[in-house]
Amino acid sequence: MTSDTTAFLAATRQTFATYRKLAEETSPDRAWQKMLEGYPERQKQRMTPFLSWPTLAEGFASSIPFFARVGMQMTVVDISNRGMDAVLEIQRYCPYLQISREQGQATPCHVMCEMDVEATRRAFPEMKGTILSRQATGDCVCLFRYERPMKPAACPVSGTNPAH
After folding, report:
1. Which domains does the chain have, with CATH numbers?
2. Which pTM does this prediction carry?
3. Are 129 and 146 in contact (CB under 8 A)?
4. Which helix (H) or strand (E) holds 118?
């Protein structure tokens, strides 16, 4: 196990422990809102280097080595169409499943993935993120779709951008 993986797993365990403690002290909804505080700002710092690429597909593909270092198996598919820069992020391995169960959560989705997607939406209002499938509910992969208006330089001359 690499030091990146060890640090990632420790941070994940801490996230679940913090959520559990806050939920016990207040409520699950308040705990989630409390943990979301400051997350969009951190998400903006973390994701800006990836999202500054001309397309989401290029940016997300550039993040694959990061995810690989923490044990995740990510594939990116460019689904850009009709003036939208769009990507599918496919995660074949979910490191959160076992940790969420260790920490008393039935699934990791609400504490990790839904919070991540919401923080991304708040950090980048022009971008929309959706969770399409979840290993925690029996799907074979975790599947996320992200989309934003296509940047003019990235638009093909196929007429998908009304400006062309």
Report:
1. 3-154 (3.30.1380)
2. 0.86
3. yes
4. helix 115-123
